[in-house]
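Page 42, continued from yesterday. The earlier attempt failed because a stray header line got pasted into the input along with the sequence. Redoing it now with the clean sequence only.
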Amino acid sequence: MTSSDDEYGQVLNNNTTNNVSNRRMNSNSNNPHPSASNVEIRLLMTSRDAGAVIGKGGSAIQKLRADHPRIILQVPDCASPERVLILSGEEEQCFDALYQIIPCLTDSIRLSAFNRRRNTSSGGNTDQIQANHNDEQSASELRILVHQIYCGAIIGKGGQHIKELRQTYNLDIKVFSQCCPLSHERVISLHGKPEDILECLKNIYNLMASSAQQPRGSPLIQYDPHNFDIYSVNEYGGFSSAAGVDNRSGYNSRGAYSSTTPRGGLGARFNNTAVLTSTRVTLPNELVGAIIGPRGAKIQQIRQTTSANIIIDDQAIPSGNGGGGDRIITIEGTPEQISRAQTLLQQAVRQSGLWRP
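This time it went through. Structure tokens are written below.
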């Protein structure tokens, strides 16, 4: 469903073994802010940009680690269009390393749907269009991953706090309302000058560290790019691959990866011989809440259960008789997935008590 606007402790040195680093990366600690001086930043980027950060033979990332000995810098390998870069350790060094990383993220800018919308919607005369293009050329963008529990505080009541952040740091900021696939993390996109982005990020991480709302109970499930989902990538704020590439078979800068991978994501949802199709159904506007559920829980459950992609139109079709009209629901996947999704959607409506035959 298209949305509108709407991380750990002990610092290790560069000689830390891979096993210790991996255990740290996969930590189930609920609170990603154990102290004011330490921070973990999780950055979503394209696989091509991840390659630029790593450098030929790992030279670039080794230099970053040498220049910032009090942090851990990781870019776990993943054969999908996007990767997660993890910076953890002393706050000042994390942000300094991030500042050096930003110029590498050229592919993320190029593929950014956020920027494409800005470019295509900019009207006016030729001078205005050229000025907008020049601004885009000099701007940068970061997409950070944060636990969904912090997003309310970042947005603020009625969107007031995010509005203040935009005005204070002169940035375009978007908080995506849908969590990344099979995770508790949401994407926050920040677009503007690198120095403004970093200052805003410091504000955001200080806010999360001091927030009264902290993860409790079940362990934090961080986003794993192996679960990349082409059908919901624009909804959760991820990166699809370059135009002309068949995303359904999977892709990164090193070529296609097998769709029979057992890790989940695309490989778990579809195989090479699957027949993909779509269908459209309508539902009275007043019943849409029954299939969405509180905070989108119901529709998310149906998507995960069926592995079908379900898109609900934002606007209702006028009925012509003064009623609320109908909403179009598009269901994409294999015929079996579509059939199962339709059944669960119908059950959700009946069980809501709102349906009157």
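Notes: The beta strands are 38-46, 71-74, 82-90, 140-147, 172-175, 185-192, 277-284, 309-312, 326-333.
Reminder to self: strip header lines before submitting.
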